Amino acid sequence: MKDDICPICGGVKIESTTSFTVDYNTGVVVVRDVPAKACMQCGEEWISDDIASKLEEIVSISKKQNQEIFIAKFNNYSLAS
Ligand SMILES: [Zn+2]
Prior knowledge:
Layout: E1 13-24, E2 27-39, E3 45-46, H1 49-63, E4 69-73
Parallel strand pairs: 2-4
Antiparallel strand pairs: 1-2, 2-3
């Protein structure tokens, strides 16, 4: 497995956090402190399937707030997985 090697530049991936933004018709949802892997060399980021499905849940919760801009922290949501 070459999981920890960046397929783009061959750099090393490290544990990191990122922000995830969804822009939909009536607003924007920003989720901060999302666990991700990032390439030390080129900065490309990867989010695991697990994290991605939690993000979808957070986004759908956030959309119901009907705010133009909604900022959530990933760790503030403990969702059933
Ligand atoms: Zn890279």
